[in-house]
Automatic annotation (TrEMBL):
Name listed for the protein in its UniProt record: ADP-ribose diphosphatase
UniProt keyword annotations, A-Z: Hydrolase
Record carries keyword Hydrolase: yes
Cofactor (UniProt): Mg(2+)
Superkingdom of source: Bacteria
Gene Ontology biological process terms in this record: AMP biosynthetic process; ATP biosynthetic process
Nudix hydrolase domain sequence ranges: 39-174
Keyword RNA-binding: no
Length: 183
């Protein structure tokens, strides 16, 4: 079913650290008026990188996650800097976090975090034909690189230290894409 988007009567903005908080005065097609709040990032989006050592092995990184105060396994990820494309950001982040560059990079799609109240998007990038190369990054310590077989995703998603939704979704999307992608 296709619906007409609500009419925005007014937007009120507030500073919220790295985000801009907007309060929207909306009117729906049925006449209902409501206030919604959403967060807009101040940056240029982000990348989530699936680095494939080979078509059966992905490289994960273990890094400190302040939100849950523990070390988490996950994919390479990071902000897109001003003037960068998602492919350039993916290659840079891969070199900074995992110590590899990629000769082949493919953007599969954008992922949202919480689209009901947040505009942030992360571009899912597949990195293939890897070669060793390290760039200095902004992490306070070197990240541990952990190879993981894609046919063992069922074990990975049950681990307590692998909980980030973008990484989980990206790995399943990448696995499906690999089933039909040219080798």
């Amino acid at each position: 079913m296709s619906r007409r988007l609500p009419t925005i009567h007014r937007i009120t903005e507030h500073d919220a650290g790295p985000y801009r908080l907007e309060r929207l005065d909306l009117e729906f097609a049925n006449g209902e008026r409501r206030h919604y709040e959403r967060l807009h990032g101040r940056g240029h989006g982000a990348v989530v990188v699936v680095p494939l050592l080979d078509d059966d092995t992905v490289l994960l990184v273990r890094e400190y996650a302040a939100g849950v105060h523990r070390y988490e396994l996950g994919l390479v990820k990071g902000r897109i800097d001003a003037g960068e494309t998602p492919l350039q950001a993916a290659d840079r982040e891969l070199k900074e976090e995992a110590g590899y560059g990629a000769r082949s990079l493919t953007v599969l799609r954008a992922l949202t975090l919480a689209p009901t109240y947040m505009s942030h998007q992360a571009h899912l990038v597949i990195a293939r034909d890897l070669y060793p190369e390290r760039l200095p990054g902004d992490e306070p310590e070197e990240l541990e690189v952990v190879p993981w077989k894609l046919d063992a995703l069922h074990e990975l998603i049950l681990r307590e230290d692998f909980s980030e939704g973008r990484s989980i979704a990206a790995l399943f999307i990448a696995r499906e894409w690999l089933r039909t992608a040219p080798r």
